[in-house]
Amino acid sequence: MSSPLETLWEEVRELTFGTTPQIDRLHTPPTPLHFLRHYLSQNKPFILSASAATTLRWPATALWSSTSYLRQTLSNSTVSLHLTPTGHADSIATHPTSPNSLCFASAHVQQTPFSAAIDAIQSSSIDSDGGFVAYLQQQNDCFRGEYGALAGDCDSDVGWATEAIGSLPEAVNLWIGNGLSETSFHKDHYENLYAVVTGEKHFVLLPPTDVHRMYIRGYPAATYTYSQETGEFKLELENPVRHVPWCSVNPYPSPENKEKEMSEFPLYHNGPKPFEVTVKAGEILYLPSMWFHHVRQTPDPRGLTIAVNYWYDMQFDIKYAYFNFLQSLPPPPKPTSCKSRSLDDSLLNENESDCDEKCREE
Q: Where in this chain does the record put each JmjC domain (predicted)?
């Protein structure tokens, strides 16, 4: 017999997406009123297709295909380059001093001339002898700061979203990476308009009502440090210890770990199928606030994926109150064969303020 929460998961999909659930794909930009009524107020995602003549009439869609243009325009810019050994930052990793435990790992960040940063991204590699994955993904309104020289290549906001929401974006961010970077499941308290300029982004999406399927647990925070001399990474725990509530599920477990992951996280693997969408160059994804999302990317022929996203503040209204109440409820019963991690399950519904900061890898 299904639990009330499991019934909720199914009903949300049926009421929001119908009997053949899929993310809407629009071929013309919505009017502000249409966006407000059918998507923003319903917390419902959609993709604005590249087939729309007015989707992205940005100089960036032509100019940014030239790496030399980017290098020249940002020749005097120093940017925040994020480095990891695996391409996974803001994600769960093996605890540095306890191999049977886990921690929340953040990237090593260093200030780098833009041209050198592009070189690092294009030369990224993962192998047994070392290597690193570089990603430009600073999320502090970086497009209007570190990359201000490119500001004229894109719209300063998304007009129909700005009018519907009633405010300008809180932050605009630029993302430049390669096919090795991957973003673990997380959510943000922003209405997100995510525009891909080159390459593709692959999203796995779950609505906020599926919070129990994410197995949010508290992990001790740690940060990678990287030595330029030795080319080695070291993962260091924060002192004093700080626990970060984070999603435990990996939607793409390796073949050798798949059975273990399915046993450990049955609510995710045995529940309703997540939504999987690909956002291509010239397209915009509306990612509603508090939706859980996991992101991978496919680069363009140069080995780069470039995107710009606009973060609009969400309304902390009755929807937010409903979500807080929902996550306070105990999860549905687990099968008796389910193995649990050696972490305190009381952290499952821990306050999530730490993971709702703007520092998120996309």
A: 133-327
